[in-house]
Amino acid sequence: MQKKKNEITLLNVLMCLMVMFIHVTSEALSIRDVNPATWLVLFVPWRLFAIVVPGFIMLSGIKLFLKGTDGFSAIRFYKKRALSIVLPYLLWVVIYYIYYCSTGVMTFSIRELIYYIYSGDLAGHFYFVIALLQFYLLMPLWVWLFRKFSPVIILTASIFISIIFGQFLPNLIDMMIPDYFFRYYDRTFTSYLFWWCLGGYIGLNYDGFKETLKKNTGFIFFLLLVSIFFDLIGSVLFFKYDRPQSWLDTTHMMYTFSALLFLMRAGIYYSDSKLASLGIIKKLDSASYLIYLTHCLTLAEVTRWLDKFGVNGLLNRYAIRIVLVYGITISLCIIYKQLKYSRTAKNRRAV
Fold first, then answer.
1. Measured between alpha carbons, how far is 198 from 67 in angstroms, rounded to an integer?
2. CA geometry: angle at 350 spanning 348 and 351, to 5°?
3. DSSP states of 267-309 as a string?
């Protein structure tokens, strides 16, 4: 088995922490009468961190195709993903649903639970798993396409598909079914096709990709700065002043692309550093999927207790949510993974 690259580990850990920040910060940004300066300070990193779903999709493609396609077995692939991705997802959907029913937010219904399982609607982060599973389900297709066609053809086609059947999918469906808004486009695989294909080709040509990044660091940084400027202007106008910008989705895609390349380049730079070899980094990486699945439940319970004890004030609530959500979720997930690893190692020695 090929050893995971340190830069991939660093990026995976960083994005895991970023997605937690996005969800913890959302409450503060939803308060309309908040001080404009405070809102802006929180909004800028919140918006800049909104690369995590394309980033996780890209990383998944990289990790899967790093080993190449020659030894691909569909049965072995599906079995492994069923155990490592699908079963934890199903378990945590049930746990979230029981929690919401026990706290009076929902009333138990088997039909409703089944809907939440396949829709990913129960919590704000589950939609990513639904999108990722579509790529996994079509894995034999990707193996065939990546073997058959050049990166130029596939990546060019995937950009157009991601824009047309991602950004404009609700409009296309509305043309066929008037007055019907398809609200699940954010978890339809076509919305993230470019990032998956990009990750796949990076994985298949990883050494060459690293050299290309090193040779174009200056250009990537320039593109990042330009895209940050326009993305922040457009997003502030939209989110703060309710002035939609038709070019914002395209600009954000350019920002996401340059940001992911820049972070990969930074990861390569730090891949041999003490940071990459820290035990906590490896533990966070190992527990990242569990952290992703569980952190919104911790957030919901922390928020419930803040409301129960009448803790008001944006900064007070925000500081408590940051400390407790990060602290509780990360600690418990790492402890669980360590206990599971120790038990597995003990069982292997006993055989």
1. 16
2. 70
3. HHHTTTSHHHH-HHHHHHHHTHHHHHHHHHHHHHHHHHHHHHT
Hey, what are 113's tokens? 């639970």
CA 236 to chain centre: 22
214 CB neighbour count, 10 Å cutoff: 11
The pLDDT score that the predictor gives to residue 214 is: 95
- pLDDT score, position 21: 97
Angle between helical axes of 127-137 and 52-65 (0-180°, round to 10): 30
DSSP 237-256: HHHTT----TTHHHHHHHHH
Write the pLDDT tens digit of every residue in 336-346. Answer: 999 988 887 77
Grouping H, G, I as helix, E, B as strand and the rest as coil, residue 343 is: helix
Mean pLDDT: which of 16-20, 63-67, 145-149, 178-182 is highest? Answer: 16-20
Helix (H, G, I), strand (E, B) or coil at 96: helix
Distances (CA, A) of 75 to 80, 84, 130: 9, 14, 20
Asked whether 193 and 162 are in contact (CB, 8 A), the reply is yes
